[in-house]
Design a protein that fits this description.
Layout lengths: L1 H16 L5 H8 L1 H4 L2 H11 L3 H18 L15 E10 L7 H11 L2 E5 L3 H9 L2 H4 L2 E5 L7 E5 L3 E7 L6 E6 L9 E6 L6 H22 L4 E6 L7 H7 L4 E2 H4 L21 E6 L2 E8 L8 E9 L7
Length: about 325
C-alpha cells in the first residue's frame, strides 16, 4: 500500500512537469490534485512500518506536490496599491452545444458581468439568447455561430472599437477591442476554445495555435491590456498550458487567490472536478474570481473582476 501510494503521487508529479503532449501524460496531469492525495497515505503507511527512509522520501514528494498547489490560494495583486484602476467584470461560459438556459444566462450575466465570452455558440443558441434579451442587456456583440462545438462569440456593455474572427478547422478564436470608459487604452479581449485533450492531437495543435494567437494579440493590443477568456480544456497542472502563460500572462483565479475555481462538470449531478475554463490577463490585474452555475450547461461560468491598470502619473 505504501509503495502504491508513493508511486501514484510520484507519477502524477512527473506527468505535471513533462513538456510533451500525450494522452496519459495530459490526463495524469489533469488528475494530479487527486493523485496527490496518495502522498499523505504513503507517509502514514511507511511510518507504521517504521521505514524511516521511505517516510522521508514520501514526505519530500508530498511537500513538492503541495507546493505546486499553494500559489492557487495566495493573492498576487499587489500592483493596485499604487495605480489608479478601472474595473471590468468578465464572464466566460461554455454553452454546451447551445443548450444552456438562455434566460438564466442572461439574468446571471446582467447581474455579474460587463463582458461575456461564450463558447459552443450554435445558431439556435444565438437565437435563444437574443430572444431572452442578451442583445438588449449587452448591446455590442461579435459572434461566430457554428453547428456543434465550433461557435464562439462575445457580448459587451461597452462599444467594440475593432473585432476579428480567427477561423480554424476545429475551434475558432475571436478577438475585439473593448472601449472601456476611463481606461487609458482599449483593452483587447480574446475568446478561445481548445479541443478536448481526449483528442490529443487536436488539443496539442490548438495549444500551439493558442500560443501563436497570443503572440499576434500582442500586436493587436498595441500595448494595452489583454484579457483571454474561454474553455481551454486544460488545467494549470498541464505543462504545455503553463508554457502558454510564460508569454506574459497570469491566470486570473490564481492571481486573485481564488483557490480551485472548478468549472467542469457544471450543473450535472457530479460535482465539478477540474478547472478547465480560465481567464488570463496581461497588463491588467484580476482582483476576484468565482464560478456560477449555468442551468443546461456542462460547465460552470467563470467570472473575474479585472482592473485595467492606469499609467503612474509623473510630475514635470
Amino acid at each position: 500500500m505504501g509503495w502504491l501510494s508513493l508511486g501514484t503521487i510520484a507519477l502524477g508529479l512527473v506527468a505535471r512537469h513533462l513538456p510533451f503532449a500525450s494522452r496519459p501524460v495530459v490526463i495524469g496531469a489533469a488528475l494530479f490534485p487527486y493523485l496527490a492525495l496518495a502522498g499523505p497515505l504513503s507517509v502514514i503507511v511507511f511510518s507504521l512500518r517504521r521505514r524511516w527512509l521511505l517516510v522521508g522520501a514520501s514526505a519530500t514528494v508530498t511537500a513538492a506536490a503541495i507546493a505546486t498547489q499553494i500559489p492557487q490560494h495566495l493573492s498576487h495583486k499587489s500592483e493596485n496599491a499604487r495605480r489608479g484602476v478601472v474595473p471590468v467584470r468578465v464572464m466566460s461560459v461554455n454553452l454546451c452545444l447551445g443548450r444552456a438556459s438562455a434566460a438564466s444566462l442572461v439574468g446571471s450575466a446582467l447581474e455579474n458581468a460587463d463582458v461575456v465570452a461564450v463558447q459552443e455558440l450554435t445558431p439556435e443558441g444565438l437565437a435563444r439568447l437574443s430572444a431572452a434579451g442578451m442583445d438588449a442587456a449587452f448591446p455590442y456583440r461579435h459572434v461566430y455561430p457554428r453547428p456543434g462545438a465550433h461557435g464562439i462569440g462575445l457580448w459587451s456593455k461597452f462599444a467594440l472599437s475593432q473585432a476579428w474572427t480567427i477561423a480554424a478547422p476545429r475551434m475558432p478564436f475571436a478577438a475585439a477591442k473593448i472601449a472601456v470608459p476611463g481606461a487609458h487604452a482599449d483593452p483587447l479581449l480574446v475568446v478561445v476554445h481548445v479541443t478536448n485533450p481526449w483528442h490529443i492531437d487536436g488539443w496539442a495543435a490548438d495549444i500551439r495555435r493558442l500560443s501563436n494567437a497570443l503572440r499576434e494579440a500582442e500586436d493587436w493590443s498595441e500595448g494595452a491590456a489583454v484579457i483571454v477568456a474561454g474553455d481551454f480544456n486544460s488545467t494549470l497542472d498541464m505543462r504545455p498550458f503553463r508554457d502558454v502563460l510564460r508569454l506574459g500572462y497570469r491566470d486570473a483565479a490564481r492571481q486573485a487567490g481564488a483557490g480551485f475555481t472548478l468549472t467542469f462538470p457544471g450543473s450535472m449531478p457530479v460535482p465539478p472536478l477540474a478547472a478547465i475554463d480560465h481567464i488570463l490577463v496581461r497588463r491588467c490585474t484580476a482582483v476576484t474570481a468565482r464560478t456560477l452555475i449555468v442551468p443546461g450547461s456542462d460547465h460552470r461560468a467563470l467570472v473575474a473582476t479585472i482592473t485595467i491598470n492606469q499609467p503612474i502619473a509623473t510630475s514635470a
